[in-house]
Amino acid sequence: MTTHPAPPGPTTGTKPAAPARRPPLTVPGTWRLAAGPYAVLIPRKPLLGTAAVLVVLIAASAVHLAVGEIFVHPLDALRALFGDGTPRDLLVVERLRLPRLQAGLAVGAALGAAGCLMQTLAQNRLATPDTVGLNDGAAAFAVASVTGLTTSLLPSGAALTGAATAAALTLALSGGAGRGGYRFLVVGLGVGAVFGAVTSLVLARSAADAANAAYGWTVGTLNSRDRDAVALLALALLIVLPLAMVLGRRLLLLRLSDSVASGLGVRIKGLRLAVIALAVVLGGLAVAVAGPLGMIALAAPEAARRIAGPRSVPVLLSALAGALFTLLADLLGRTVLAPLEIPVGLVTAVVGGPYLLWLLLTTRTRRSL
Fold first, then answer.
1. Please, which residues bridge with residue 43 across strands?
2. Which of 5, 238, 265, 356 is packed most tightly, with the most Cβ within 10 A?
3. Which residues lie in Low complexity bias regions (predicted)?
4. Would you call the peptide bond into 99 cis, given omega within 30 degrees of 0 as the criterion?
């Protein structure tokens, strides 16, 4: 009888071969940060773009403090920020330019973030707080509060009320801010025109002193802004910007059909209302500080998308770009015809007008985002 060796297996004590280890998941254009079993993929292009814009914004802030009718050396301006320097430097930097810088940073960031949210929600590059009536409603109520014709609310509260009223009217008349982005935009333009007429009527019926006091809320300016309003806007940014960044990630799914987004767990109606509420808060408080600054909410998100790419909703980058554009516009208005000062709202309108015309001529499809 012939015996044969048993096949290798558990009875012979031979260990089975270990499974091959899978390579770590990587996505082109991202950095992978791993900690134990957890890993995070960070998009490379948006992060580098945000860092670059932040560096440019810091440099622009330093120039904003140093350059003007009275030149202050950047190092002297930096020392004046900490309360050290000559009386002239302290007066120019702390009393005159630093409040404008703070107001410009807060207003520009708020408008940039609000514009990014509105454009992504409506799937339209032209849908911003400027064009859908939010800023016009906020300006009308703020002017009314200053002149004392219709309400005794502070400008911040009145501007929020006006922005919310304009948003409610636009949503009700357009049927929402969903796929009908152009209908939402056209209705918003009409609502904004009505509120603009209300502002003109209020100013025409006001006394000369009251109309002069409300002038800043009609053209947009950073000169002699209320510090309490700036502080309120800064506090709102600290709360709203993180929420807007979270909602921005959800807004990416709205680029799909509503049925697909709902299947992925997105509550479409609630998401849209939340986005509009955040845009109302940011736009209303920004108008309460500086008045309606046109084109910031339109240009900043467009620049942010060109830097970050189409795969994200760059809320933070739009806020930084909006702050940068606002500071540059204010610096241009202070220096180009010095000692004559041009309000920053007029500068943004003059510079942004050709950009809006170019955008209208190059937008060929209904869905631009």
1. 30
2. 356
3. 11-20
4. no
3-class DSSP state for residue 90?
A: helix
Quote the domain boundaries for residue 252: 45-359
Question: Is 343 domain-assigned?
Answer: yes
Q: Which CATH number covers residue 60?
A: 1.10.3470.10
* DSSP secondary structure, 182-201, as one string: HHHHHHHHHHHHHHHHHHHH
- Pairing label, strands 30-35, 38-43: antiparallel
What does the pLDDT look like over 99-153, one tens digit per residue?
999 999 999 999 999 999 988 888 888 888 888 888 888 888 888 888 875 444 5
Residue type, 232: L
Q: Is 52 helix (H, G, I), strand (E, B) or coil?
A: helix
How many structural domains are present in the chain?
A: 1
What pTM value is reported for the model? 0.84
Rounded Cα distance, 9 and 81, in Å: 78
Coil, strand, or helix at residue 311? coil
Q: Is residue 23 part of a domain?
A: no
Asked whether residue 52 is assigned to any structural domain, the reply reads yes
